[in-house]
């Protein structure tokens, strides 16, 4: 990436032409979360809590959780995980606000989530490879970023981290190509859950042994 927003977010003529902000409330694991979404042209798709994030939370609520991404990571931290949230620099303030709003009254069980900027394919080497889990929700939507994301995931999971990716399977964004053609080049990947009604898949990936 060259840092230009036009290369990061899909361009639509009237995308968030009118700026507005809204709070949404969600409940998982007996915890209530209030997530602010600030819709404007500069944040673009980074403003939203996408359905893929909700489905990944549902998936872990039914299985287990030891997590490291916005909304999903806040849930993980509320349950005691040590979490680092990454996003483009422009979206960091919104993530920080949502962490502050959802801080438990008795304090975080482990520690408050940290928030750091990460540009795929550029500065992943600034991050450790010693994670337990790496999570991503609806981050597969620009084919030109596929090799950058792949390089980033390879670095983050090279010491054994398991990657969970939840995606709306949008044909116009070549989402299926990422999982079928790009990811298997360097990482073992398997489909662990499919939600046909909402066209959302959850994949688990890890380095080849």
Automatic annotation (TrEMBL):
One of its GO terms (biological process) is methylation. GO terms for cellular component: cytosol; protein-containing complex. InterPro entries: Methyltransf_16, SAM-dependent_MTases_sf. SUPFAM superfamilies: S-adenosyl-L-methionine-dependent methyltransferases. Keywords: Methyltransferase, S-adenosyl-L-methionine, Transferase. Signal peptide: none annotated. One of its GO terms (molecular function) is methyltransferase activity. This is EEF1A lysine methyltransferase 3. It comes from Electrophorus electricus (Electric eel). The lineage of its organism: Eukaryota, Metazoa, Chordata, Craniata, Vertebrata. The gene is LOC113572446.
């Amino acid at each position: 990436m060259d840092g230009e927003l036009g290369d990061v977010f899909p361009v639509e003529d009237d995308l968030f032409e009118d700026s507005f902000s809204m709070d949404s409330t969600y409940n998982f694991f007996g915890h209530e979360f209030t997530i602010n979404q600030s819709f404007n042209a500069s944040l673009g798709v980074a403003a939203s809590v996408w359905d893929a994030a909700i489905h990944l939370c549902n998936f872990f609520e039914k299985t287990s959780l030891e997590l490291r991404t916005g909304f999903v990571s806040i849930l993980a931290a509320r349950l005691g995980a040590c979490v680092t949230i990454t996003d483009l620099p422009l979206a960091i303030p919104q993530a920080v606000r949502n962490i502050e709003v959802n801080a438990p009254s008795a304090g975080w069980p482990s520690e408050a989530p940290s928030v750091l900027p990460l540009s795929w394919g550029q500065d992943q080497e600034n991050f450790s490879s010693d994670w337990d889990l790496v999570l991503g929700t609806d981050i597969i939507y620009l084919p030109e970023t596929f090799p950058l994301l792949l390089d980033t995931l390879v670095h983050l999971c090279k010491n054994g981290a398991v990657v969970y990716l939840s995606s709306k399977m949008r044909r116009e964004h070549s989402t299926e190509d990422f999982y079928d053609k790009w990811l298997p080049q360097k990482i073992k990947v398997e489909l662990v859950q499919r939600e046909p009604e909402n066209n959302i898949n959850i994949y688990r990936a890890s380095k080849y042994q």
